Amino acid sequence: MRDILVFYSDFDNYSQWKQLLQRELPDLDVRRAEDIEDPSQVRYALVWKPPIRFFHRWPNLELVINLGAGVDALVSRDDLPDVAVTRLSDPNMARMMAGYVLFAVLRYAREIPFFERMQREAQWCYRHPRSPETLRIGVMGLGELGKRAAEELARQGFSVAGWSRSPKRLEGIECYHGLDSLSAFLTDCEILVVMLPSTPDTRGLLDAERLAALPRGARLINVSRGDIIDETALIEQLQSGHLGAATLDVFAKEPLEVSSPLWGMQQVLITPHLASVALPDSAAAQIAENIRRLRQGKPPHHRVDLQRGY
Ligand code: GLV
Q: Of 29, 46, 123, 225, which residue is 20 to 30 A from 200 by alpha carbon distance?
């Protein structure tokens, strides 16, 4: 029997993934769904946001590999078969994310948007830079990606606090956990970085009241999922000036609708969901390793807890 891996993604480079996976596993047949004649030969699915009912087509699936870190789009659907689901857990992806977060935080910390405005008016407008220790940055979500970003920020000398659902201990980072401590955490955050997974517990977590708990003029950076923040409240608080600025890579609905007021806000930087992406060169090996493990009857690494949602 052939061993087919079905690939689905509207964003990722199919030929590159196919080439790298087949270099790792020469006997693996990597194909797109439309090129598969006998669906019963498909044992693995490497997917990013496949269409609804996609999984119904493969009766002998043994492994679903999420082509990314966040699995919210997968776990919330009802056609997912009862097989192991894994996600990418790639240090290079974490590094790429930390790079984006560092860029976005430093941009605010060094007041780059202000200097860009001044440059357009040909104004030499000196503002003495603040020392990073005096700037409080909050990172919400201390999973693999959040932890790495928080550590990079601490390495830059910022005063970093982290908030997570369960208790964490991280060197040089003041860690808060649980809903009871959320207001205390938010009160001091001059820059808030959102890195939480989207789960039933985190959706809408940053509502109007919690955003209002941030100090006036706080800057917000969201690189995880748009639905963690109440987007209407976010827009209102940017309009009222309670929030000073935002860097948004993710949105409740993507692509962000043309009619969204966020597009026109000078104090908002929008990027189209690319703070961190799946990197074939570094992640193909871990996917191949999981397929090898499955063939040997071993449990795969980086398995998603479907109940927990990440
Ligand atoms: C991107 O958003 C990912 O979850 O990998």
A: 46
- Which pLDDT score, from 0 to 100, does residue 300 have? 97
Q: How far apart are CA 272 and CA 100, in angstroms?
A: 13
Sheet (strand 29-32) strand order: 29-32, 4-8, 42-47, 63-66, 84-86
Q: How many CB atoms are closer than 10 A to CB 296?
A: 7
Ligand 1 in contact with 69 (CB < 6 A)? yes
The reply to whether the predicted model has a pTM over 0.85 is yes
126 in helix, strand or coil? coil
Is residue 135 within 6 Å of ligand 1 at its C-beta? no
Cα separations in angstroms, 165 against 63, 214, 280: 28, 19, 31
- d(CA 144, CA 301) in angstroms, rounded, equals 14
pLDDT for 96? 98
Indicate whether residue 143 lines ligand 1 (CB < 6 A). no
Cα 175-181-185 angle, rounded to 5 deg: 60
Q: What is the pLDDT of residue 309?
A: 87
CA-based nearest residue to 220, from 235, 199, 200: 235
Buried b (16+ CB within 10 A) or exposed e, 116-143: eeeeeeeeeeeeeeeebeebbbbbbbbb
Give the mutation target among 277, 282, 286, 304 for probing the ligand 1 site: most ligand atoms within 8 A of CB: 277
Q: For 109-162, how does the pLDDT look when each residue is reduced to its tens digit (9 = 90+)?
A: 999 999 999 999 999 999 999 999 999 999 999 999 999 999 999 999 999 999
Residue with tokens 């030969």: 41
> How far is residue 180's CA from residue 160's CA, in Å, rounded to a whole number?
19
pLDDT of residue 1: 60
235-279 confidence digits (pLDDT tens): 999 999 999 999 999 999 999 999 999 999 999 999 999 999 999
